[in-house]
Amino acid sequence: MEDYKREFIEFMVDSQVLKFGEFILKSGRKSPFFMNAGAYVTGSQLRKLGEYYARAIHNRYGDEFDVLFGPAYKGIPLSVAATIAYSELYGKEIRYCSNRKEVKDHGDTGILLGSPLKDGDRIVIIEDVTTSGKSIEETFPILKAQAEVEIKGLMVSLNRMEKGKGGQLGALDEIKELYGFETGAIVTMEEVVDCLYNKPYKGNVIIDDVLKAEIDAYYEQYGC
């Protein structure tokens, strides 16, 4: 495993973003692990997170895009942090954009925050995690309603490696098939397990045999 992936996994654990236990997901699935990007709350955490995203986006999509779009709400700080990091790491000024949950009808009107979208814009969507693809189902029509944009791809921090809504392909592969754009992740859940299973980290074994069995059982049902 590449060093930066191991560092990112440890960063998620240290930031209490990646947790293990029993969680009910937005999709309704009961999961033994949960990733919550809302737990990145300090300046140093957001700086590091933006750098991890920027590197992953650059490796996956190069410089051939204009806008990072972060769906409300958790995608808003992700898009801002990654846009800043992209400028610092690669010297390219890209724009950030996000949506509101409700259309604003006064002052800065409309459904978007940040940069307006215009015809010809090339967009990379940035999210924390995609379990079933439901969030893209909500985001895609919002983007297409604003202008004649090209969606270059999606970048998430963790690929949960689960079946999408169709029940056959993985969520990220299903998104690619349904919407026609590429997808990527900083790390996969398989890499997380490989990094943490029965390997002490700061004096603790985070994924022991009992938790590994729960994760395996979850993937028996929902894994792609």
Could you please describe the fold and organization of this structure?
The protein is α/β, with parallel strands linked by helices. It is built from 7 helices and 8 strands. It has a 6-stranded mixed beta sheet with strand order 5-4-3-6-7-8, sandwiched between helices. It has a two-stranded antiparallel ribbon with strand order 1-2. Strand 3, helix 3 (75-90) and strand 4 form a beta-alpha-beta unit.
Number of helices: 7
Number of strands: 8
SS strand fraction: 25-35%
Could you list the spans in which at least 5 consecutive residues all have pLDDT below 50? Answer: none
Helix and strand topology:
Layout: H1 3-14, E1 18-24, E2 30-35, H2 43-61, E3 67-70, H3 75-90, E4 95-104, E5 110-114, E6 122-130, H4 134-146, E7 150-159, H5 171-179, E8 182-188, H6 189-196, H7 209-222
Parallel strand pairs: 3-4, 3-6, 6-7, 7-8
Antiparallel strand pairs: 1-2, 4-5
Helix pairs in contact: 2-3
Brief characterization of the structure:
This protein is of the alpha/beta class.
Can you give keywords for this protein?
globular; 26% strand; 7 helices
